[in-house]
Specification:
single chain; alpha+beta; Aminopeptidase; seven-stranded mixed β-sheet; 5 helices
């Protein structure tokens, strides 16, 4: 497995993998993925034999992104790297791809002296993602109620 920066040529694969992760990843169009890549401070993919098998897209504070979850972190923190989405293709789940990607996010966090912000659905529940984040040292810092769902806000200090 190779870890490398994502590019616009990965859009179709990113979108496909993101769709496989619904509802946990949140549905977005290819255009929205392109906008996220352009706004990101860190966007990397895991590749096997040249095929994208997983990705993570992270944003810095204060971009023009309309996510309520992201806005919550902007309201409560001035410095962070926000994991907007991390997803692994169905064929490669539970094989260490997500952990490898998060390892790079945490290294970035430590190199830049900034915490990592993320959220996980409470409703609908996503217990696997909660276990994953707790393994990486994330702590609950709040709960945000949306119209149709609620999310646990998580932070991992550098």
């Amino acid at each position: 497995m190779d870890i490398a920066p994502l590019s616009e040529s990965d859009l179709d694969s990113i979108w496909s993998i993101n769709e496989q992760g619904l509802p946990g990843t949140g549905q977005v169009s290819k255009e929205e993925i392109s906008q996220l890549l352009n706004s990101s401070s860190l966007s990397i993919g895991a590749y096997s034999g040249g095929e994208l098998i997983g990705f993570v897209i992270c944003l810095p504070p204060k971009t023009a992104y309309g996510s309520l979850n992201y806005a919550w972190f902007n309201h409560h923190y001035t410095s962070f790297i926000y994991v907007d989405r991390i997803a692994v293709s169905n064929a490669y789940r539970n094989s260490g791809v997500g952990s490898a990607l998060y390892g790079h996010v945490i290294s970035y966090s430590q190199e830049h002296g900034i915490p990592v912000a993320a959220e996980v659905n409470l409703e609908p529940p996503n217990p696997g993602s909660m276990r994953f984040h707790y393994r990486f040292g994330f702590e609950e810092v709040g709960i945000l109620q949306h119209e149709k769902k609620s999310v646990t806000m998580l932070l991992r200090n550098c």
